[in-house]
Amino acid sequence: MGLKMKKPRHLPLPNNKKDRLAEIMRVDHAGEYGAKRIYEGQLNITRGGALHKEIKDMYEQELTHLKYFETQLAQKRIRPTILQPLWHALGYALGAATALCGEKSAMACTVAVEDVIEEHYQSQIDELSNSNEDSELKEKIKQFRDEELEHRDRGIANKAQETFGYKTLYNIVQTATKTAILLSKKI
């Protein structure tokens, strides 16, 4: 007699456009918060390093993105993800750990995260374009996507792909980022 596996339960899809917009705001806020924490971890480790200023510049852009979503959540009375304390700790740990492995590893982390975020933001842009919903939000997401792509390109320019074990690190960071997105949408 074998064990019968229960079919996984899926969270219900949003009931309406308002719920979907709240989901977009919640997950994007969580992502920008996580990015802030990754860069804070990297900044604490790279003090005095060659890439410290580069990381600080990207961090400051992330703060602008985060501020936008914080304002939107407050104005629209949308709760942030309840997982924020987890992203607080894990984001910092990911940033610090990759920076401890060297500046190229910190840049590899940036490349992996930003590749996922570009795809995530593009999907939202497409969805918002198809529904003609919230053009201000769509334009902000386009702007932020472009800035995230700039971060990715800066990571590549700073030799991210020369990191020892680049593909493995890249895949681990991408999987973690995709998981964080999936969880932050609903929870």
Automatic annotation (TrEMBL):
Reaction catalyzed: a 5-methoxy-2-methyl-3-(all-trans-polyprenyl)benzene-1,4-diol + AH2 + O2 = a 3-demethylubiquinol + A + H2O
Top-rank taxon: Bacteria
InterPro entries referenced in this protein's UniProt entry, alphabetically: Ferritin-like_SF, Ubq_synth_Coq7
Free-text comment on the cofactor: Binds 2 iron ions per subunit.
Pathway: Cofactor biosynthesis; ubiquinone biosynthesis
Annotated residues for binding of Fe cation 1: 32, 62, 65, 148
One Pfam family of this chain: COQ7
Transmembrane feature ranges: none
Location relative to the cell: Cell membrane
Entry's EC annotation: 1.14.99.60
Lipid bilayer topology: Peripheral membrane protein
Cofactor: Fe cation
Alphabetically ordered keywords of this record: Cell membrane, Iron, Membrane, Metal-binding, Monooxygenase, Oxidoreductase, Ubiquinone, Ubiquinone biosynthesis
Family affiliation: Belongs to the COQ7 family.
Role noted for this protein: Catalyzes the hydroxylation of 2-nonaprenyl-3-methyl-6-methoxy-1,4-benzoquinol during ubiquinone biosynthesis.
Listed name of the protein: 3-demethoxyubiquinol 3-hydroxylase
Source organism of this protein record: Candidatus Jidaibacter acanthamoebae
